[in-house]
Specification:
- There is one protein chain.
- With 274 residues, the chain is of the alpha/beta class.
- The protein is 35% helix and 26% strand.
- The protein is built from ten helices and 14 strands.
- It is globular.
């Protein structure tokens, strides 16, 4: 039976220059590999060691990138190792098979959202009405599934975020603050549902997962084993669960550690399951 490894990407396996957390002396900093270029500029990195670990993992398990990014944003990333057969984008809204969206999966997701949640347009209108232009830089709709704001974090009122979370909760949506982005996402739009679909298709009987944000909590809870780095929303909240390992490492070195843990567990599945 194959082992399935479902991992968040940003601030879990890949890092912007601001998120690398290279706290060691410059002469001891790890060599970096750029894995994403946007508008002719390098955007995301992993260490060269992490790159080799991910390549090895691609040979030892079914590796499934599992991201809140849109398909277009995901396709900018050039990960090392074998091209993943499956990838999950838009927080579970799109399942890519050999790079192509599975329309049946997307139809199932959108039908469930229509039945269980307030409409996207209502949430978008609320954000436009209540978010102050003094600290909002961009309003974005992702794949007609969820919305997010790009904000000036130091100007963002904490109370506004709390009020938004309560407002969204009452309408079947959840709110997540990640760096300079505030996400409003329908509750049934989950990474875990898409990962269960991939596990079913591949026949995997062991699922490993990693992630750093509130939007990754359901993914971690659905896995047999999970890891979270020492940074991010989950770490800030002290979030954990019985099968979740809270790692001390932060930044790019956390990405290395997560990949080591994935590889060890994929090569010793009986121990990981136990």
């Amino acid at each position: 039976m194959p082992v399935l490894v479902a991992s968040d990407l940003d601030r879990t396996l890949i890092y912007s220059s601001a998120a690398l957390a290279l706290t060691m002396p410059d002469a001891r900093a790890p060599r970096l590999l750029c894995v994403e270029v946007h508008e002719s500029k390098p955007l995301s990195y992993m260490t060269e060691t992490a790159s080799q670990l991910l390549t090895d993992l691609g040979d030892a398990a079914v590796f499934v990138p599992t991201t809140t990014r849109t398909r277009k944003q995901y396709q900018r990333i050039n990960l090392p190792g074998p091209p993943p057969k499956y990838a999950i984008c838009a927080n579970g809204g799109h399942l890519l098979v050999d790079g192509v969206c599975d329309p049946d999966w997307h139809a199932r997701v959108t039908a469930r959202l229509a039945a269980e949640c307030a409409p996207l347009d209502d949430v978008r209108a609320h954000l436009e009405r209540t978010a102050d232009p003094a600290w909002v830089r961009k309003h974005r709709v992702a794949e007609d599934l969820f919305v997010y704001l790009v904000v000036e974090r130091e100007l963002l009122p904490e109370e506004w975020v709390k009020e938004l979370a309560v407002w969204a909760e009452n309408r079947g949506w959840t709110v997540s603050l990640q760096g300079r982005k505030i996400y409003a996402v329908p509750k049934p739009l989950t990474k875990s549902a898409a990962v269960r679909e991939v596990a079913h298709r591949t026949g995997a009987d062991l699922t490993l997962a990693a992630g750093d944000s509130l939007l990754d909590a359901d993914l971690l809870l659905a896995a047999d084993r999970g890891w979270r780095p020492g940074h991010g929303e989950l770490a800030d909240a002290g979030w954990t669960a019985p099968a979740i390992s809270a790692l001390p490492e932060r930044g790019a070195l956390a990405g290395e550690r997560i990949l080591r843990e994935f590889l060890r567990a994929a090569r010793q599945p009986d121990q990981a399951a136990g």
